[in-house]
Design goal:
With about 250 residues, the protein is α+β, with helices and mostly antiparallel strands. It has helices at about 10-20, 45-60, 80-100, 125-130, 150-160, 200, 225-235; strands spanning about 65-70, 105-110, 120-125, 140-145, 165, 170-175, 175-180, 185, 190-200, 215-220, 245. Helix content is about 30%, strand content about 20%. Helix 3 (about 80-100) crosses helix 7.
């Protein structure tokens, strides 16, 4: 493989942007691998081909979609960015359910590890959303019995992780759960609850195996696309400041 290997991502973008015709491989030639080294010169011919497409992509990625007067971070048990995205997950799921004549959503849960970056105060650019959510995770709604939500609360009791939630309040202390509310009410073990999350978590990712006791409803919607839409709907982002996770015995990190 030649050193032009580093341009393959741009060539892939070029193929997507230039045409939709079927491509066929006519010939494959084996070449000696050449390690990519600092200081290697760019291929002028390839750079000339991809230049207009790269410029267009950079222009799109640097477009302003919203604004924040405060830093949106992942810090703390009730992080500003985490709670904001959890609320966006809830709102997007609720809108999908209404549009598709499904049962309303009760709460939302996402994982802090899936948020890969933060957003500083100022203009929020499109590329910022790709940075915080680079994965292709989809929105999933899990229908689960109230009695099986004990697994969700136990997960927080044991892990004391700051995985963001929306419409959920969990308080732990002295090795037990002292408060577990959904929409401000205690859970009815015989009722069905509809929890919005990601396909990764619905499948048991990050040890959230409690979701396996429920039934997943696939929406086919990318979380990143939904977040982009939500940021666009809010020209000035004001992150929630309510307390949702309280771990009284949590050791300082």
């Amino acid at each position: 493989m030649s050193r032009n290997y580093r341009f393959l991502p741009f060539l892939g973008l070029l193929a997507l942007m230039s045409c939709h015709s079927r491509l066929q491989i006519r010939q494959v030639d084996a070449e000696k691998n050449i390690p990519i080294q600092p200081g290697m010169q760019e291929d002028a011919a390839i750079m000339e081909v991809i230049a207009p497409y790269r410029k267009s992509l950079e222009s799109q990625m640097n477009s302003v979609i919203s604004h924040t007067s405060v830093d949106l971070t992942k810090t703390g048990d009730n992080s500003s960015l985490g709670n904001l995205l959890a609320d966006y997950t809830f709102d997007a799921a609720q809108e999908w359910a209404q549009k598709n004549h499904r049962h309303g959503i009760d709460a939302a849960l996402i994982n802090i590890g899936g948020i890969r970056s933060t957003i500083g105060k100022g203009s929020i650019l499109l590329r910022h959303i790709f940075e915080i959510m680079p994965f292709e995770n989809e929105l999933v709604i899990v229908k689960i019995k109230g009695k099986d939500l004990n697994g969700l609360f136990d997960y927080y009791l044991k892990s004391q992780k700051n995985d963001p939630v929306s419409r959920i309040i969990i308080e732990t202390g002295q090795g037990r759960i002292s408060k577990a509310l959904i929409n401000g009410e205690e859970v009815n073990p015989d009722s069905d609850y509809y929890i919005a999350t990601s396909d990764y978590l619905a499948l048991g990712g990050d040890n959230m195996t409690f979701f396996s006791k429920g039934t997943s409803i696939n929406t086919g919607e990318k979380l990143r696309d939904l977040y982009i839409q939500k940021f666009k709907e809010h020209p000035e982002v004001i992150p929630p400041d309510d307390v949702r996770l309280i771990f009284k015995d949590k050791k300082a990190e």
